[in-house]
Amino acid sequence: MAVFARPRQAFVIAGVLGLALSAAACGTGNDKGSSSNADSAECAAYDKYKGHDGKKVSIYSSIRDIEADRLDQSWEQFEECTGIDIDHEGSGEFEAQLPVRVDGGNAPDLAFIPQPGLLKRFADAGKLKPVGADTKAMAEQNYSPDWLKYSTVNGTLYGAPLGSNVKSFVWYSPKMFKEKGWTVPTTWDDLIKLSDTIAASGIKPWCAGIESGDATGWPATDWIEDVLLRTAGPEVYDQWTTHGIPFNDPKVAEALDRAGSILKNEKYVNGGFGGVKSLATTSFQEAGVPITTGKCALHRQASFYANQWPEGTKVGEDGDVFAFYFPAIDPAKGKPVLGGGEFVAAFNDRPEVQAVQTYLASGEYANSRAKIGDWVSANKQLDLANVANPIDKLSVQILQDQSTVFRFDGSDLMPAAVGAGTFWKGMVDWVNGKDTASVLQGIESSWK
Amino acid sequence: MTTTTPTVPTGTQRTGATPTRVGRVRRRLNSPVASLVSIVIAVVWTVPTFGLFVSSFRPEDEIKTTGWWTFFTNPQFTLENYQEVLFGRSASSGQLASYFINSLAITIPSVLFPLAFAALAAYALAWMNFRGRDWVYIAIFALQIVPLQMALVPLLRFFSAGVTVAGVQVLPAWDLVDEQKFAQVWFAHTCFALPLAVFLLHNFISQLPGDLMEAARVDGASHPKIFRTIVLPLITPALAAFGIFQFLWVWNDLLVALIFAGGNDETAPLTVRLAEMAGTRGNEWQRLTAGAFVSIVVPLIVFLSLQRYFVRGLLAGSVKG
Amino acid sequence: MEFDFAEEQPKFLMLMYGLIAFVAVVGGLLLLLDVVPAWFARRREAQLVAASASGAPLPRRRQREGFLALFFLLPTLLLLVVGLVVPAIRTTLLSFMDKDSDQWVGLQNYGWMFSDGSIVRVLVNTLVWVLLVPLVATTIGLLYAVMVDRARFEAVAKSLIFMPMAISFVGASIIWKFVYAYRGDEQEQIGLLNQIVVSLGGEPKQWLLESPLNTLLLIVIMVWIQAGFAMVVLSAAIKAIPADIVEAARLDGVTSWQMFWRITLPSIRPALIVVVVTITIATLKVFDIVRTSTNGNYDTSVIANEMYNQAFRYGENGQGSALAVVLFILVIPIVIYQIRNLRQQREG
């Protein structure tokens, strides 16, 4: 990092409005991206991105803290070799702030958008730039059409996926299962049988929590989606997320009731927290923790829950906690994987922006990021050997498996007013005792 | 009304000159019941903060499983929360000191500008005669209700695209980078603070004794001169008072800073860092306990050190009965 | 990464530029104000001498003052136009348009507001907030100010009540979420309120789930913050009551109660109005508390929170703007009151 102050020139006090003072300075002090080692051997892989030395690309995302450090680390070599300076900013207010910045004419060059619904909104408004030919080729080479369709609007591809997660997991304690002689269930009926066995042993089998600050409710939407995928199948699921069938279709009601047979069952929940009513106020981060103290045995949550366990908890097939795949309900419908991820969308089509966009879709990037740890991607070039964490490894295996039917988190596909609004709120009401029909009716009427 | 009340300086002196007698008179008003009620209020007001304070010294899993009051029977003390807040684990989020400087660089001008402009405006609205002044005042007052969220997009566009009237660029875009973006934040905070500032200062300035102004005017002093030599000294305490509120507001602001300065350690204030501390998925909230106390220290110091002016300030202003 | 002071230099430089700009702008303005009217002043002096001798009015003075006043008001007015007036007009226009703001839809957004049951609830909640918060916060602030006045530990006592003001809304909400926290009855409570209930032999409750109690509990947070503001301003006003009035009343043998109603309250009326009006407007705009505590779930949402959700999270610009316009409308009674107040003051 530069020790010297950057040269500042031409400071102008504009008398505009008495206060408006604008400082025009030339940002020549580009301390990163010296081209000195650009020709070394390890830079050979980046040859195709060259020619943008000294250019700056801004990225906006919801990724913060340690994970943001890892991002910066993951493209460090790319920056050094190409001389492109990537300026990443993560914000917890990403979803609300991105539209403000875009409308205000202050859009970032690239944004990592986790909601295809939001991506579509920007694409429809003409704010996004379609991907360049290089990016398109790279994306199509490395990601399955299943994934790319989520960032394709009216036949135009607007970005490649980046990180992903697998949501169809049930966390449990291998240690506890071994001690008690329980086995991992592979069918829904086994799962219910196991739940009854556990309940009979005096432990409430399931723990869950849907409190998540201003996103309260989302963990329950994942539950519903996972069940719907298994009871009605991916085709119906697609119709549901695109409003091809009403939100309160009988098939959806059935899925809700089935999920309710666990979530709203006083016998089953809420291990370690109290009754069904405690679901709404238990934060999703804490929700699975009772597994480590033996007060609860099962917790359905995504792969990223691996980071939520108390320090010192060993994650692994023979460790303190691990996850099994959410079993199929109807063998005919199979067990599609529910997941999420973010897409690299561009608000700008300058060549260096496209270069970065292409790079982020590449196998080199995926492996570079995976090596740093705690990361999953559906990128086909991702080498399993670079994935250390066992749950991430399992996730990557599932995502890369050719036979896997993948579906994106439905609430992220719907218009935000539904997917991040009435659906979440409806779930909160639902776990608090409101009946299935009126909850679904309420959500349906909000979808215009 | 104004003529029957004592002038400001005399009022101040009188209270100051006879502290013992008045003190005795007033102290008798404090019955035991009143003392009890005030103690109850003080306790209720302090306990939540105190609980947080105690929690900030407790280990993470203790916070999540037992009440903070158990600290006294089973003290488990750690400084880890503060260590993480102050020195961080994340390299890209930078050093706390850096955010601290950002907060200062944002706050100081954001307090000074609205104070100066509002004082000028409030004086004009209170003591100068021109047509429609009451309506101007009422309009400014009413602007308090405009939610600043609704102002973000237009203001951002003002900075990023300038002003264009009928295809003609009237004002250019600002095109600021890095720490120059502070200027945008100052501008935004000043805009948003003005209605309340004008309202409060007008209330104050309009209650200054009219004979004082009249006398000055008869002596031939111009309005600018009256403002500088008579009004400013008298309202310095009121300025200090509003300054504190504006300071607290800007210091605790997250939204305006995020929009107009961005969230990098180049420009983001302490609040942005504290919000970030909750982790990407909000799981590290035990750190917020320590974070809250780190951010509260400066406002408290400011309040305690300005409290003196503050009290005297409003003292003069409310003389009018 | 070591902390590098040199890297912070540009920021200090920028701060310095800001301060220079401040001095230049404000100083320049004052200078300008001095120079421009200087020749007016010289002429007026002569007129004044003549006028004060004859007692005749100065017919042209008003006009000149208007010109001068413009300079006093210029920075404020320009900033307000850019920062608030334009956005307010834009918001009003957007409220008659659809969610992408490219088609006029007439009153549809307003129709939506009153036909959607959850939004009607939001409007009702907002009214409850606006009625309760100023009343309770001001009352507590006033009582406390009167009671600790001249008490032995006054400064400390006042700092305690003021402290919540120094905490951001989000911080305050987190603190209170802690107080309201719930754990199942077989577990140890971590929330103070439930601990108290349990130790009194009751059942722990999920406070934030119980409507309409939860709205009141959120109001407590706002009162907790704003009482400090009320206390500080009112306490200063009380101190300003001229000592001779208090003494005279004392000698007349009035009780503390009478003293409060007959002397204290009338004397601090202007300050009281300022406090109530300021807190009322702050309450109308509050959204962080609701957002952090419940995100408007369990029937606790208020207009400002719903506006933020609609406009920013759901991309429903029309509906969000319409809610903002309702906020404008709600403030009209206060504006009318202010106009009346101002008239009285001018006549008085």
CATH uppermost class of the largest domain in chain A? Alpha Beta
Largest interface: B-C, 143 and 137 residues
CATH C-level class of the largest domain in chain B is Mainly Alpha
Q: What's the CATH superfamily of the largest domain in chain B, by name?
A: MetI-like
Radius of gyration of chain B: 24 Å
Shape assignment of chain B = flat
Compressed to H and E, one letter per element, the order of chain B equals HHHHHHHHEEHHHHHH
- Classify the helix fraction of chain B into a percent range: 55-70%
Number of helices of chain A: 18
Global Rg of chain A: 24 Å
* Number of structurally distinct domains of chain B: 2
- SS content category of chain A: alpha/beta
Query: What name does CATH use for the topology of the largest domain in chain A?
Result: D-Maltodextrin-Binding Protein, domain 2
Q: Whole-Å distance between the termini of chain B?
A: 8 Å
Name its key features.
heterotrimer, A: 448 residues, alpha/beta, D-Maltodextrin-Binding Protein, domain 2, three-stranded antiparallel beta sheet, 18 helices, 13 strands, globular, B: 321 residues, mainly alpha, MetI-like fold, two-stranded antiparallel ribbon, 2 strands, disordered N terminus, disordered C terminus
